[in-house]
Amino acid sequence: MTKIISAFAIGVVFGTGILIAGMADPAKVLNFFDIAGTWDPSLAFVMGGALLVTAIGYRLVWVQKAPLLGTAFQLPTASDLDTRLIGGSAVFGIGWGLSGFCPGGLVPALGLGMVEPLVTASAILAGMVVAKSAKSALDRGRAPAAT
Amino acid sequence: MTDFTPFLSFLGGTLIGLAVVSLMLVHGRIAGISGILGGLLSKPNSDEWAWRAAFVAGMIVSPIVLHAATGSLTKITIPVSYPALLVGGFLVGIGVSFGSGCTSGHGVCGLSRFSARSMVATGTFMITAMATVFATRHIFGG
């Protein structure tokens, strides 16, 4: 129960940061990308603030042996700069540039009572479901002798 | 046009950082929103599913909390059409799944860990997002 309450509270802080920063506002996000037009550099300050706190905070946290409510810190171990990483990120950027919503910006927007974020969320989830089956199909093709 | 808001945006960024660091301190987890959402697509039977659902629920109610605290509801403007939201959203879903992360997972958590994968991913999606906006606003649109 403690885990659920703390995750909820951290989610509230994360979402509040996104909203204050302007990351939930597609108009602002798209203007950040529109260097040749109505450029609004604000979101560089979001990244600056978040990176400053995280880069220092992570190192202070990792001095501990384990998280407060867990047995070990779970960090990604992959190190390959492979096609999936680069191709996937390229496709994500195209989608972000078309819609103005990244996943972190979208979730707090869901609580504003508007239709557009809900529509975008269903499209993102549909993309995730399709990608999940496409990935397992690709993996099967890649290692046919594994089973 | 949108207003240039360096102070509010920096403040929001530090709150995002605070949440990211807290999730590591308390739960030992990377705060990648696409990964957390993707985890919700698996069977809802574990502790793993529960903390993710609670985190997402907290994010969804955050506008209500902010409204209660400040007296004003955050206003957003959506300058694109429904087809753009649908196609764009679908590509976001595909892209973050194959790319193993988005702005939060690669852009904040990964860069803070000095992960080479995240640096490549963040550079890639920033460039393609800018190219897409350039194409829609200055080549095909406007």
From TrEMBL, chain A:
The keyword Transmembrane applies. Pfam families: DUF6691. Keywords: Membrane, Transmembrane, Transmembrane helix. The chain crosses the membrane at residues 7-24, 44-62, 83-101, 107-131. This is Sulphur transport domain-containing protein. It comes from Roseibium hamelinense.
TrEMBL record, chain B:
Belongs to the TsuA/YedE (TC 9.B.102) family. One of its GO terms (cellular component) is plasma membrane. It is a multi-pass membrane protein. This is Uncharacterized protein. Its main location: membrane. It is found in: Cell inner membrane. Keywords: Cell inner membrane, Cell membrane, Membrane, Transmembrane, Transmembrane helix, Transport. InterPro entries: Sulf_transp_TsuA/YedE (IPR007272). The chain crosses the membrane at residues 6-28, 49-70, 76-98, 119-140. Coiled coil: none annotated.
